[in-house]
Write a structure and sequence with these properties.
Layout lengths: L1 E12 L6 E12 L3 E5 L6 H8 L7 E6 L2 E2 L5 H11 E5 L10 H11 L6 H10 L15 H13 L5 E5 L7 H17 L4 E5 L2 H4 L4 E6 L2 E4 L6
Parallel strand pairs: 3-8, 3-9, 6-7, 7-8
Antiparallel strand pairs: 1-2, 1-4, 4-5, 9-10
Amino acid sequence: MEILKTEALKKYYGKGVNLVKAVDGVDLSIAEGEFAAIAGSSGSGKTTLLHMMGGLDSPTEGKVYIDGRDIYAVNDESLTIFRRRKVGFVFQSYNLIPVLNVWENITMPIQFDLKRVDQEFVEEIMRTLNIFDKKNALPNQLSGGQQQRTAIARALVTRPSIVLADEPTGNLDSKTSQEVVNLLRHSVKKYHQTIVMITHDENLARMADRIVRIEDGKLVNKGGAPC
């Protein structure tokens, strides 16, 4: 079953001789339960593509569907609510709130929606990601790997339709990167999630079910199973 789809997706900047085609007509389909890696060199358009797929950056042209819904056919307020409930984000810089502890950072998206926190589910995610013993710690008391695992838990806690990870190991050493991606892969499988991960690291890309390659804003390979 298809969970995310882009149609002729474009993001252009500038005009005339200064025109930059950051994303240039991308058609891509992501299946429910899939772990897809989008790989490409620096400046290839992969992060811009991911941001449009998640509703963080509006396209110049084209459409994005999540759960069959055209996410750019609604107003900004509706898109913000939809994004918070349906899309989990994991960023390179973690984006944790310094004055909140691990538990508070993880449950923050639920608090925004004024919903009851499923304590048992949150604790299960934290144990899966090996951070339960850090639940009262502040971000500056954590290692980089622990901070990223906290960010992954926050992305999973709302049971989103899809998780989008933008260079999630960019600030980590190679050993910790492998550990984090293994935990991410295990978590999305355990909780029946779908993930799209941006990476320039070929070794990490090969851990995905499929590698999609982008260069100069165009898909050059929609991928199959990684070699």
